[in-house]
């Protein structure tokens, strides 16, 4: 089975591609770093040629309403069109839990538009809604910096958290955690 991972150089895509390759699947890694631009459509047909399955983990660095909505509309349109033309038999996309309930959030609203485009495409599909990954935590903290030279510092109040360096700490577990940012 040939699988095209779109967004394969990103946080989630690189991990997905690595696991699938390890498990013996024939993978096409598609991202801007490999000459595939899902937003403009450049290289998309080539990347999906012969693919049985598409895994769409594309994402945008912008969270503004216009940019995010435009990004997901264009990338989804380009990917879905190429998937149909290439004879893809299944389209899997990563989304976010509760996008249909948090429509006040521009990013979630744009993800919901992406989901609806996939549903309306006529392709067999799976939309995997995942909770937000704590891998984004450092980016959120960095984005809250006071200025360019000073980044926010969050201290973890528990010894286990300090020892783990946040990698293995269970946020939302029985122990209450306060972030002092």
What's the SSE pattern?
A: EHEHEHEHEHH
Q: What best-fitting shape do the alpha-carbon axes yield? A: globular
Terminal residue distance:
47 Å
What oligomeric arrangement do these chains adopt? single chain
Number of strands: 5
Structural class: alpha/beta
Arithmetic mean of pLDDT: 78
Radius of gyration: 18 Å
Helix content bin: 25-40%
Enumerate the spans where pLDDT stays under 50 for 5 or more consecutive residues: 144-181
How many strands, what sense, and barrel or not for the largest sheet? 5 strands, parallel
Our count of helices gives 6
Strand order of the largest sheet: 2-1-3-4-5
Strand content: 5-15%
Helices and strands in order:
Blueprint: E1 2-6, H1 11-22, E2 26-30, H2 44-48, E3 53-56, H3 65-86, E4 90-96, H4 106-120, E5 125-130, H5 137-143, H6 159-164
Parallel strand pairs: 1-2, 1-3, 3-4, 4-5
Helix pairs in contact: 3-4
Give keywords.
alpha/beta, single chain, 5-stranded parallel beta sheet, 181 residues, 37% helix, disordered C terminus
Describe this structure as you would to a colleague:
- The chain is of the alpha/beta class and 181 residues long.
- 37% of the residues lie in helices and 15% in strands.
- The protein contains six helices and five strands.
- It has helices spanning 11-22, 44-48, 65-86, 106-120, 137-143, 159-164; strands at 2-6, 26-30, 53-56, 90-96, 125-130.
- α3 (65-86) packs parallel to α4.
- The chain is globular.
């Amino acid at each position: 089975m040939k699988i095209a991972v779109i967004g394969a150089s990103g946080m989630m895509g690189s991990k997905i591609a690595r696991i699938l390759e390890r498990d013996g699947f024939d993978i096409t890694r598609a991202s801007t770093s490999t000459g595939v631009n899902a937003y403009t459509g450049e290289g998309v047909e080539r990347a999906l040629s012969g693919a049985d399955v598409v895994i769409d983990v594309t994402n945008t660095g912008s969270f503004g309403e216009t940019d995010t909505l435009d990004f997901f509309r264009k990338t989804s349109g380009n990917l879905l069109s190429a998937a149909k033309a290439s004879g893809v038999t299944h389209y899997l996309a990563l989304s976010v839990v509760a996008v249909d309930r948090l429509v006040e959030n521009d990013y979630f609203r744009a993800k919901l538009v992406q989901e609806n485009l996939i549903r309306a495409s006529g392709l067999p599909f799976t939309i995997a809604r995942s909770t937000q990954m704590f891998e984004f935590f450092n980016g959120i903290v960095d984005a809250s910096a006071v200025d360019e030279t000073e980044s926010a510092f969050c201290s973890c109040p528990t010894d286990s958290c300090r020892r783990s360096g946040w990698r293995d700490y269970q946020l939302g577990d029985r122990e209450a955690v306060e972030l002092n940012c």
